[in-house]
Design goal:
mainly alpha, 3 helices
Amino acid sequence: MYRINPLMRDVLITTDEAIFHAPTKQQVDPRAIQNSIIVAEERFIRPAICDDFYESLVSLKNTDVTDANKA
């Protein structure tokens, strides 16, 4: 369902996830919201949960899934 993160940095919320959960039936261009995701994470999420916890979540979220770690 989701593609690999197209942003130039690791984030918690990917463009596909944002579009999938958006309250719209229209086609949304992922490029239109890419920068907004980064800004939202930097302005609201990171300060709310502290830098270390944010970085920990981002590293867990952006792990390459292989047969060895799929479970």
